[in-house]
Give the backbone structure.
Amino acid sequence: MSDMSYVRSEMLPERAPPASSVGFVGWMRQNLFNGIVNSILTIVSLVLIAMVAMAIVPWIFSPTWNGTSQNDCREIIGAGHHAACWGVINDRWEQLLFGFYPNGTEGDTTDQRWRPIVAFALLFVAVTPVLFSMISRRMNWVLLLAVLGLTGLYLGGAAGMILGLALLAGAAFVGFKALSTDKDARAAEIEAGAKRLPNPLIFSAIFPFIAPWLLWGGSIWLPVGAALGFVIGYFAYSILSKIVGSLAGIILAVVASIVWWLFLTGGFASLMDAILPIGLEPVESRKFGGFMLSITIGVVAIACSLPIGIVLALGRQSDLMIVKALCVGFIEFIRGVPLITLLFVASTLLNIFMPPGTNFDIILRVLIMVTLFASAYMAEVIRGGLAALPRGQYEAADALGLDYWKAQRLIIMPQALKISIPGIVSTFIGVFKDTVLVSIIGLLDPLGLSNAIRADQAWNGLVWELYGFIALLFFVFCFSMSRYSMYLERRLRTDHR
Amino acid sequence: MSSITLDHHADRSKMAVSDEVAIEIRNMNKWYGSFHVLRDIDLTVYQGERIVIAGPSGSGKSTLIRCINRLEEHQEGQIIVDGTELTSDLKNVDKVRSEVGMVFQHFNLFPHLTILENCTLAPIWVRKEPRKEAEARAMHFLEKVKIPEQAHKYPGMLSGGQQQRVAIARSLCMMPRIMLFDEPTSALDPEMIKEVLETMVELAEEGMTMLCVTHEMGFAKEVANRVIFMDAGQIVEQNEPEEFFNNPQSERTKLFLSQIL
């Protein structure tokens, strides 16, 4: 045995990594040419990709945008070549977006398509404060004022012009102030007592009442009445809960709201209509179609399925036997049945159970079915998140004296939902894509419309162009959701930052 | 088993025990299914006492202190905390929980909240305190456990010892009259055990009533005014620490002490 003892006399300084492992060359080496077999695979893959691209790219870039029919396209491309005929998209894209929503071409109708456009612009304004915390309050109000201002300008007329310009000026003013004062200065102003702008979530809460009114039209007093139901429920709860206790207060408030909606809203709306008739031209559900329909169904199902799914997941974990049995039964039933079956039930069977003469809107029926379907899946995804939480989190919340609902809201759900984000967004994407199934019950979603378009003599038999365009639009939506979920996961990460 | 020596010697003169009863447990029994975990527990804890509960694993010592804030439900007998009896009435349970703080083996901090938010959550939502007040008190206690500079970090960025001290501060923010410690140092590295124990010694010196399940016998000798030895769900022996360690009475205690000391 030689001498085993060793003492380091000085600590080693940090050194840069070798040049071959960093930078572009290092990346190529590690990822593409890491050994002989991998290098060969890389080259073969690149050749394959190039071959596919060479076949597809010329097909896509064909100068047929202005073609008026399939034959016209063929003449433009020239005999013997095979290329896309984009004229069909140019001719029919409005129909793919709006279906048969009145565009002023039929009889005495006027162009109403500004309404879905405004509704979706407002949807964008309404979801930004929910989705992005880094967008300031002021920028949200700028967005809202700008959308409303542009709508005013579009609608025209003296009032519309003046209102539109005023709103745009307001947007410009708020936007200018937001850009000219920095964050810390603004924080100091607020600290010193400056008034904050109202929370933009107020608009997000009002939006669900505005959107259906814009899309379906009719009297404004119906959505106002529906919103009043929530106000009534809120006041009923805040007054009654002090007298009869919180649980009984909730039940009575719900009863009060339901009574209002079922028996009094109709009277209220017709009364107000007589006094002050404000309304939009009504549009029937069967005129809805295209991506407008897909987005409507998708957004409603997504927005409603998350809260319902949370409640179902909690119910499934509950100690209360009956609540648990109901939730498990519901979830398992819905998951055990194909969506198409539920849609058929919505389109045909439900009418049998309704009193004769009731006209229960077909889109509303579909919305309910798709939402219930999505909720059941959502509940299971969230249950997975709940199961992943350590028991210690529940115990710590209990030990601090938080009651069940507070613990769920402040401790359990924020963590469970965070864990479930990938699953939740997958479910969202699935629901959004499933909206094309409504074509089976005769609603004209983009796929249903593409059949109608192909039936036209001019575009007979065009498949790739239409499906490609529809696929592209779906991809834009689904890919955005997917990227958003990744952004959200990054933002919510709290370990080792 | 513990080789941790504390630099800071506890000043026992500051630790006064009053004759006001803090916790009264009478003839309490508990079963997990058909397994009888706690058998005829009788225990009276006075305000200001520091009690260390020792015993082999599975002896029911954690279950006992978890019954005191009703993380576990007992089936027979009475537990009265600060004059409130623990029954299935949730109001009583909430009242007891707001007066009894608890520190867990695995800290159980809320990973999605910052340190400061961890400390202010319960005061704001349970005690309905204004945010400013709650934050000021949280900072006070974070300074006391010597980590005010970490207030805006997340628990995942702290070491185990720091996390446990945050957990202690979080409990203190609810201004509890009684603190329960469930093996607070068992999940920590030796270097970190010391910083947590020293925090607990300081707490004892301020007169906090403490029940502590621990294997740190150094801490028991330094701080406790009573050591309880449990085995097989029963209190086998209890005594002042000096008597307990130097002159154990029962065979079971002697065996236990010979194995861990």
